[in-house]
Automatic annotation (TrEMBL):
<dbReference type="Pfam" id="PF03713">
    <property type="entry name" value="DUF305"/>
</dbReference>
<dbReference type="InterPro" id="IPR012347">
    <property type="entry name" value="Ferritin-like"/>
</dbReference>
<protein>
    <submittedName>
        <fullName>DUF305 domain-containing protein</fullName>
    </submittedName>
</protein>
<feature type="signal peptide">
    <location>
        <begin position="1"/>
        <end position="24"/>
    </location>
</feature>
<feature type="domain" description="DUF305">
    <location>
        <begin position="38"/>
        <end position="126"/>
    </location>
</feature>
<keyword id="KW-0732">Signal</keyword>
<dbReference type="InterPro" id="IPR005183">
    <property type="entry name" value="DUF305_CopM-like"/>
</dbReference>
Length: 131
């Protein structure tokens, strides 16, 4: 726990002290936005239908989040969060399709309901602001 707090504090400090990248899109050019190699499963489980579905949902979310920045923090936040929330919904649907633990299935259902509502609110905000 202490290690987690120290790491989080270090990251927060680094993010506030580090220079701000003027154009996030340029900074991300040429980067592979799929899962990092370190976190890619290499065991037989990664070939299971559920693992393939989780990997597909993650790749779809990261692709949707890699939109060009507008320079408007509100718009960029909402667009990124819509993609992020949709990723959570897609992963929750994988849990419902393949998962067996009733508590986790209930959590997945709750995530879907909450995230769909938040996506609708954010989409309405974009529409209301002509974005």
């Amino acid at each position: 726990m202490v290690r987690t707090i120290v790491i989080a504090a270090s990251l927060l400090l680094a993010s506030t002290v580090a220079p701000v990248v003027a154009n996030a899109e340029d900074a991300m050019k040429g980067m592979d936005h799929s899962m990092p190699a370190k976190s890619m499963p290499s065991d037989a489980g990664s070939k299971s239908p559920s693992s393939k579905a989780f990997l597909a949902a993650n790749a779809k979310m990261h692709k949707a989040m890699a939109k060009p920045m507008t320079g408007d923090a509100d718009v960029d936040f909402v667009r990124g969060m819509i993609a992020h929330h949709q990723g959570a919904i897609d992963m929750a649907k994988v849990e419902l399709q393949y998962g067996k633990d009733e508590k986790l299935r209930k959590l997945a259902e709750d995530i879907i309901k909450a995230q769909e509502g938040e996506i609708a609110m954010m989409q309405q905000w974009l529409d209301a602001h002509g974005k």
